[in-house]
Specification:
Elements: E1 22-26, E2 29-30, E3 33-34, E4 39-43, E5 47-53, E6 56-63, H1 68-78, E7 88-97, E8 113-121, H2 123-132, E9 136-137, H3 171-179, H4 186-191, E10 195-200, E11 206-212, H5 215-228, E12 237-240, H6 246-254, E13 259-262, H7 268-277, E14 280-286, E15 289-294
Parallel strand pairs: 5-8, 6-9, 12-13, 13-14
Antiparallel strand pairs: 1-4, 2-3, 5-6, 7-8, 10-11, 10-12, 14-15
Helix pairs in contact: 1-5, 6-7
Length: about 300
């Protein structure tokens, strides 16, 4: 995996301290007894990220502030706002600010750091976006916040392309990808609270790992990275450090990813989506075993 140290904003200026891993004070306790003196620690930050399409804000997601252009592109594709990468003409990331945090007064930080990612998209895609009449307010644990009715749930996935290598994908190969996942999570090594989405070749070799506090965000970052580099549709599969939920399976199906493997168990609806789409869905991928819930005969 190549070094992809992010620069942010695009002009390379540094992130303000509040959106980097936060420094906190902690004490370790055991059964109520203090086991150590107060010490410094690092924890992950969640930063509001507004996704702005042709000047109109469509979604606000809480994200880890790195790989945000890949995230925005992956979100636009996996949510069906864009049909192809070619419908996005440009992406620009800008620092912004939210209202003051509760309890802050004079002398404190007046505003909470935030980010806006502006996407210039084709008029056809923008017209479709406006027709959806959907504004998402995202949280790290929910991928369908903000839809205005049950009818807006999209439970009929596209069929994913089939390829010869899928017939030979086995537990050993899937687990090989998971074996390499932890080493490619540098930010999680610091803060211990991030999800990861990785792209593995058919032989189980990991080529990309993207991190975020939200599992949906991590997947969107990965899908956006693949789209940026013209690798969507190439042989490979997704591995994730989470459970397999409906939203993750649906995003993969929409972009033609034939295999999703997760470290925890899937939900029943995720299995149903995968089976409808003709995907392989693996769960409980913790060596020496992995469980295939859909696909593969």
């Amino acid at each position: 995996m190549t070094d992809r140290t992010p620069t942010f904003p695009p002009d390379g200026t540094a992130l303000p301290p509040a959106v980097l891993p936060a420094q906190v004070r902690r004490q370790r306790l055991e059964a109520g007894a203090v086991r150590s003196a107060a010490e410094d620690d690092q924890v992950a930050n969640e930063v509001p990220v507004a996704l702005v399409f042709n000047g109109i804000s469509h979604a606000v997601m809480m994200c880890t502030p790195q790989d945000l252009e890949a995230f925005a592109l992956g979100f636009a594709l996996s949510e069906g706002i864009l049909d192809t990468r070619a419908e996005c003409f440009g992406i620009e990331t800008r620092l912004a600010a939210c209202a003051p945090a509760a309890g802050e007064g004079e002398g404190g930080d007046p505003e909470t750091p935030a980010v806006e990612v502006h996407l210039d998209i084709a008029s056809r895609a923008f017209a479709r976006l406006k027709e959806r009449r959907r504004v998402l307010v995202g949280r790290t644990g929910c991928g369908v916040c903000g839809i205005d009715s049950l009818a807006a749930l999209d439970l009929v996935p596209e069929q994913v392309p089939q390829a010869g290598w899928l017939a030979t994908l086995d537990a050993r190969t899937v687990l090989a990808a998971f074996d390499g996942l932890q080493a490619l999570q540098p930010l999680n090594a610091q803060v211990g609270s991030l999800h990861a989405a990785g792209w593995a070749l058919p032989d189980g070799t990991l080529t990309d790992v993207l991190e975020d506090v939200g599992r949906h965000n991590a997947l969107d970052k990965l899908l956006g990275r693949l789209a940026e580099e013209g690798r969507l549709g190439t042989p490979g599969f997704v591995v994730m450090s989470s459970r397999a939920s409906y939203e993750l399976a649906r995003k993969c199906a929409r972009l033609g990813v034939p295999v999703l493997a997760t470290i925890s168990a899937p939900t029943a609806l995720a299995i149903d989506i995968a089976r409808q789409a003709g995907m392989q869905l693996w769960g409980l991928c913790r060596g020496p075993r992995a469980v295939r819930y859909a696909g593969g005969g």
